[in-house]
Each structure stands twice: as structure tokens, then as C-alpha cells.
Amino acid sequence: MTIQALLGIDTDFSPVKSDPKPAGEMAFSMMFFSDIRKDITSSEKYDFITALTLFADQSKFTAVYLPERHFHEFGAIFPNSAVMAAYLIPQTKHIRFRTAGVSLPLHHPAEVVEWWAMNDILSNGRVDLGFGSGWNKPDFIYAPHNYDDRREKMTEQIAIVKQLWAGESVEFKGPDNAYYATKVYPRPIQKSLNVWMLVAQNDKGFEQAGASGHNVFTMLYGVDLASMERKISIYRAARKRAGFDPETGVVTLMLHTLIGDSISQVKCAVESPFKAYIRSSMEAHLASDSLQKKGAAEFGEQDKDSILEYAFQRYFKTGALFGTVEDGKRIVKQAQDIGVNEIACLMDFGVDYASVKDSLPHLEQLVAAYTGVK
């Protein structure tokens, strides 16, 4: 088995081809996930996130997405998205704060609601929550009994989070095995909660999100835009069968982003750091329990170098917002055509901070073409 097959990656670099569809609006948000640079302190990384969040707030991006990561250099500065949001919220006026996402089986649902209800109040109702099941086995030292059925646990706990957010009382078992009716305080400003479900490759995940009436946060991990179109169709059909308007669900697609003066300038800026980013992510995933069982332990450095080069070329050509404003527009149009409603621009994947900040006027120009912001 090749490492591409092991990771479930399509080997076709061809741009997505689809019938032309009317161009609609596209929402843009900013996302942070993974800064792995070792030449930058954690404090400098937080300063960078702050500067870009303020830019996004002033440039009328829709939201900023914050992750939850544990015990690995890949994303290690984000162990608690609620704390990061609490720091950023008072410095902003417009932008919404979303998670991509809370690994819900690691937490008690009442605890999650308490954290984010506080942030909802501090932000005057600018909070939405995205949830994932978690996947990294060491993360589950927080809740070891939840690992095996983590996907089912996530689904169950999303429903509980929504109940608690709405002010309902939910019974939880206490230390004496008695059940305690629990109502969470402080009460958030928003009476109901907008929910995103994190889904990557799994068709059943898209179907489940649609049937539950949730929005979807997804990425091009192991799939291209053409394959994603089919998954979005599964999501829309599931919404319709469950009685939800199939077109109102938001599909958010994460894309690594750097917009510049020329495609060659952007490639020069992103190639080395993006490969380091891919390698860090790959090491984390290859160490996962599921891929170890499939034989990941047998792959050597040459195999990893091969997938690294392949992955960079694939992402650069067809799976990221890399290049000029016009290059970006082509990718955005392809995303629109397959049914994406929002692009989450991933900004912290190792590119020199000065290059990222220099690129912001170009990104602002791209966003303005779809949102009407001048």
C-alpha cells in the first residue's frame, strides 16, 4: 500500500471541472490552527494571531475560527479556544468567534457551555461553536472512557450543549451516583446556538450533519474539490430528508491562504514552510491508532518525503488560496460551483509573519470582490 492510499489521498492534480453555475456571494473568515515555527516564541505567535484578528475585524471578515489541540507541536498553542477568544473579544467589534473545533468528548458539556456563555456575553452575542469527535489517542487522557465511541458521544453531547445553551435543565450523575438537575449560568445573550460539525472525508459524517440540521466545517484532507462536491450533495440531501431547508446549511471550507503580487513570489514564500507544516501534520496523523493499524509504522523517511512533495504540489495547484488575486478568484469560483458558502482562510502554517502581513492588502482585495467591502 502506498502512503497516499494509506492516508486516503486522491492522486489526481486536475482542476475541478463542473458546469457553470450562477456566482453567488461568498463569506470569508480567518482561521488559526497550527503554527509550528520554532524560531518564534509562543508570545509572538499570539501577537500575530491578535494582529490578524484585528485586521479581519476591520475588513469585515465574517468570523475567526479557533481550534483545540493537545500534546503535539502541531497546534500546541491552542489547548483552549475559549481562553484565546476571551483575550481577543474585547479588542474587536464585529467579527464572530467560532471553534474548529471543540473536541467535545474530552469535556463535560456543561463546562463547555459555561465557558462560551461567558464569551457570548463579552462579545455581545458573537459566538458560534463547531464540534469534532477528536482523534488523537493521547488527547483522551482527559476522558479515556470516551475514546472508543467518541463519534457517538460527540453527537449525544452536541444535543446536550444546545439544551443547556437554551436554558433547559439537564440531569447529570454526581459523585454519589445521584442525578442532579443542572442549569448553566451565566445565561448567554443568544437564545440559540449556531453549530458547525467538523467533517473531513467521511460521507456518513456529512449525512449526519445534514440530518441534524448542523452547518459543516470541512477541509481538503484526502479529497479534491470535485470529490467534495459529491459530499456536499450528500449533506444537502440529508438536510432535505430531515425537513431542513437544504440550502440554508452553511458549508465552510478551510483553505491555506497567501495572496500576493505573483504566483512565483507566493510559491517562494510558502514552499519551505508549507512543507514543514505538512510534515508536522503528517507525523501526527501517522501516529494515530487507526493509521498504525493500517501499517503506517512501516513507512520510512523516503516514503514520507514522497508524500510531502506530492502533497505540496497538490495543495499548491488545486487546494489552497495561493497566488494572485485572480488566481484566488478562480479557486473561489470553483468552491462556489460545488456549493461552498464560506471559506476559512488558514493563515498560520509557517510562512514568515512579515510576508503574511504584506499579503493582507491582496487578501482584502479578494474578499472585497465577493462581499462588497471596499
Protein described:
- Strands 1, 2, 3, 4, 5, 8, 9, 10, 11 and 12 form a ten-stranded parallel sheet that branches. A two-stranded antiparallel sheet has the order 6-7.
- The longest helix is centred in the C-terminal third of the chain and has 24 residues, at 263-286.
- By secondary structure, it is an alpha/beta fold.
- Helix 3 (81-88) links the parallel strand 2 and strand 3.
- The protein has helices at residues 3-6, 42-58, 81-88, 109-122, 150-165, 203-212, 225-241, 263-286, 289-293, 301-318, 325-337, 353-371, and strands spanning 27-31, 63-66, 96-99, 102-103, 129-132, 170-173, 179-182, 195-198, 215-219, 251-259, 321-323, 342-346.
- Helix 3 packs parallel to helix 4.
Q: In sequence order, what are the helices and strands, one letter per element?
A: HEHEHEEHEHEEEHEHEHHHEHEH
Largest sheet: 10 strands, parallel
**SSE-based structural type:** alpha/beta
- Rg calc: 20 Å
Provide the β-strand percentage band. Answer: 5-15%
Averaged pLDDT: 86
| Rough outline | globular
Low-confidence spans: 1-23
Give the fraction of residues assigned to helices.
Answer: 40-55%
Annotation, overall tally of beta strands: 12
How many helices does DSSP assign?
12
Question: End-to-end distance, in Å?
Answer: 50 Å
